[in-house]
């Protein structure tokens, strides 16, 4: 169903990057930006808009993996209408579907060695959370609706998108990785897609997209030279970005807490929450 006042699509969908988490998706996002493709939807966008985007992604995941009501083109346009490209999860779960919905978009299969991918995910998304991380999450869940929206979406994504424990079920994780790339290649016509990894640099990507390689001016010679291909979001950068997001959530939670409860009550709630957490040894992947 269309929403009044919201156009079907603000900008055309130009590039669909079929690449799951930790395959160089953030580097691709910045590379596409340098090529004039604005903007590229990424997991970061769900982080920033969990209350608006999370429910639509939740519905899409349930439709694909649990027989729920599928998203119509109008729904996808409402979610992605301001973006000329998509990459990372959750969009990667729907690479073939998005390729069908947007037949004029070019498709990039973003590759990484499965073993290296597994280790990268293990050291980032699935790294162990400290007791302080868990306490902070409990506090944010209590006082920040965006955190609750994010957790609701995240639980759905783990249930349907990754139905295994990445930390302990390596064979299942790698099998999932290979299967989703098999689906990309089986369902998306070969003439619409290119195989690519961020280590290849600009040329194969620009050749496929029919765009010129970005140039920058050399500060020493003053000549135009090929711009370096972006390489972002290594393990340390991932944790730094995560900490920044959590800090923003915490700031909102603290402001909300002070707005609704007094100082003494706040201290009591935090103390009691910490006690319950200690008693239950709350753990998990969020």
From TrEMBL:
Coiled coil (UniProt feature) = none
Q: Which Pfam families match?
A: Sulfotransfer_4
Under the heading SUPFAM superfamilies, the entry gives: P-loop containing nucleoside triphosphate hydrolases
Classification via InterPro entries: P-loop_NTPase (IPR027417), Sulfotransfer_4 (IPR040632)
- State the Gene3D superfamilies in the record: P-loop containing nucleotide triphosphate hydrolases (3.40.50.300)
PANTHER family on file: P-LOOP CONTAINING NUCLEOSIDE TRIPHOSPHATE HYDROLASE PROTEIN, P-LOOP CONTAINING NUCLEOTIDE TRIPHOSPHATE HYDROLASE
Protein name as catalogued:
NAD dependent epimerase/dehydratase
């Amino acid at each position: 169903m269309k929403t009044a006042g919201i156009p079907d699509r603000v900008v055309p969908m130009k590039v669909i990057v079929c690449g799951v988490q930790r395959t160089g998706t953030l580097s691709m996002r910045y590379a596409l930006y340098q090529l004039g493709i604005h903007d590229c939807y990424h997991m970061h966008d769900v982080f920033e808009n969990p209350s608006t985007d999370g429910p639509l992604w939740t519905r899409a995941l349930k439709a694909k993996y649990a027989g729920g009501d599928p998203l119509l083109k109008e729904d996808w346009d409402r979610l992605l209408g301001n973006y000329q490209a998509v990459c990372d999860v959750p969009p990667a779960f729907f690479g073939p579907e998005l390729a069908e919905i947007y037949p004029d978009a070019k498709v990039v299969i973003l590759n990484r060695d499965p073993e290296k991918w597994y280790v990268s995910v293990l050291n980032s998304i699935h790294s162990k959370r400290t007791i302080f991380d868990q306490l902070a999450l409990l506090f944010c869940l209590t006082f920040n609706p965006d955190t609750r929206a994010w957790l609701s979406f995240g639980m759905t994504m783990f249930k349907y998108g990754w139905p295994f424990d990445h930390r302990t079920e390596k064979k299942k994780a790698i099998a999932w990785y290979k299967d989703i790339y098999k689906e990309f290649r089986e369902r998306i016509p070969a003439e619409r897609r290119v195989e690519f990894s961020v280590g290849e640099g600009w040329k194969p990507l620009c050749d496929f997209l029919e765009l010129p390689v970005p140039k920058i001016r050399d500060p020493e010679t003053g000549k135009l030279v090929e711009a370096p291909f972006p390489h972002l979001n290594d393990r340390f950068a991932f944790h730094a970005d995560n900490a920044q997001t959590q800090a923003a959530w915490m700031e909102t939670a603290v402001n909300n807490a002070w707005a609704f409860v007094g100082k003494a009550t706040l201290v009591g709630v935090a103390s009691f929450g910490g006690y319950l957490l200690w008693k239950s040894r709350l753990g998990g992947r969020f």
